[in-house]
Amino acid sequence: MNAIPVRLGIQQRIFPVYRAPFFEALGEACPQGLHLFAGLPRASEAVDSQTSLQHGELVRAHNLHILGGAAYFLWQRGILDWLESWQPEVLVMEANPRYLSTPQAVKWMHARRRPVIGWGLGAPNAGSLRARSWQRFLSRFDALIAYSWRGAEEYARIGCKPERIFVAPNAVTPKPTQPPPVRKPLTDPRQATVLYVGRLQPRKRVDLLLRACAALPFSLQPQVWIVGDGPTRQELETLADSAYPSARFWGARYGNELDDLFRSADLFVLPGTGGLAVQQAMSFALPVIVAEADGTQTDLVRPENGWLLPGSDQQALTGALYKALSNPGRLHEMGAASFQIVDVINLEGMIQAFSQAIAAALKSYSEPSG
User: Fold this and answer.
1) How far apart are the first and last CA of the chain?
2) Cα–Cα distance between 138 and 342 in angstroms, integer?
3) Which terminus of the chain, N or C, has less C-beta within 10 A?
4) C-alpha to C-alpha distance for 353 and 344, rounded to whole angstroms
5) What is d(CA 166, CA 155) in angstroms, rounded to the nearest whole number?
């Protein structure tokens, strides 16, 4: 893994636990040091926050959450004080125009001829009024890192220079160093184990998974394991009692306990938004069924290893489960394809993309202007 030879600053709205593996790996790649500036989520978000960083320094921002939903904005107090203290040579920021403190941080860096890189999901459709506003916002950055190839294409369509756009697909696990788990041949769909891992909150739509399994013919109804905790757990357990009594709720599991559950499963399902657990599941050679949501899964989920579905579509989820469980023998082949994909899309690949973006941004400042 190439070293990143600069003092690196990273701005994030929040630092959730599931992001720790990436930032620890990124910190290891930064011999000059990494500082992460991040605040706390709103209580209603039900997100577990990481409280420390072993290979770097976590600096706590003071998040001022303004309004909510489509009208949400964020102001992060203390960002200029942090920049003055850390003096980063390169700054990576979330590419979100709703973060009102971003322009002053970019201005601070550019006044010292230091580059700023935007990191985000993508941009709205080109040609709209909203897209023009985004274009003005994105023009502040010296390079862009997209979560997916789809996001990179959106940045290019909105007018960003393709040579300044880099792709770092989301990952939480490194490149596999061990062979995939060996699973017993699966012949009876009712012996199959369908696994969900993630927070139990409304946007994860675990209720859809329970209802979709209940809608399957009895001969295809699998075991369902739900791993995680959150504000909707009691509501989901009540739903399971009536709709799918065999569902098992494991609560939050980490480390070896979670690894054992991945090894014991036959199919991973993510019915709602977000979820870096998809890449983690694939590292255990599991086929996947994933709601398309924000588009970050499009590089991971392909016809050979799973199904990518429209969001909040119970009928589509039931149909994908039907196809998967009607041919249980093929699940092993699809899991092998997942494992091959993770051999390319992993933490090392993310850090390589960051390294390339940082090098390009630094080069743009070293080249003579005009």
Assistant:
1) 35
2) 30
3) C
4) 12
5) 10
What are 280-302's pLDDT values in tens digits?
999 999 999 999 866 667 788 99
- Which residue type, as a one-letter code, is found at position 229? D
Phi-psi region of 159 (alpha: psi -120 to 50; beta: other; left: phi over 0): left
Q: How far, in Å, CA of 333 to CA of 165, rounded?
A: 34
Question: Facing residues of 194 across strands?
Answer: 224, 267
Question: pLDDT tens, 343-365?
Answer: 999 999 999 999 999 999 999 87
Domains defined for the chain, CATH in brackets: 8-173+346-366 (3.40.50.2000), 189-342 (3.40.50.2000)
Q: How far, in Å, CA of 158 to CA of 156, rounded?
A: 5
State phi, psi for 83 to the nearest 5 degrees: -60, -40
H-helix segments, the chain: 20-28, 79-86, 102-111, 129-138, 149-157, 206-214, 233-243, 255-264, 277-282, 314-326, 328-342, 347-366
Q: Which of 113-117, 146-150, 286-290, 296-300 has the lowest mean pLDDT?
A: 296-300
User: What are 294's two structure tokens?
Assistant: 């924000």
The H or E element spanning position 317 is helix 314-326
- Tell me the pTM: 0.89
- Round to whole Å and give the CA distance between 238 and 298: 33
- Distances 280 to 43, 227, 342, 344, 368 between C-alpha atoms, Å: 26, 14, 9, 13, 44
pLDDT at 370: 46
The CA distance from 73 to 234, in Å, is 31
In whole angstroms, what is the distance from residue 52 CA to residue 115 CA? 26
Segment 125-151 mean pLDDT: 88
Helix (H, G, I), strand (E, B) or coil at 260: helix
Q: Residue 105 phi/psi, 5° resolution? A: -70, -40
Separation of alpha carbons 186 and 203, rounded Å: 32
**Contacting residues for 131 by C-beta, under 8 A, at least 6 apart:** 123, 124, 125, 158
Is there a contact between 165 and 141 (Cβ–Cβ < 8 Å)?
Answer: no
Q: Which residues pair with 225 in a beta bridge?
A: 195, 248
Residue among 364, 197, 180 at smallest CA distance from 271: 197
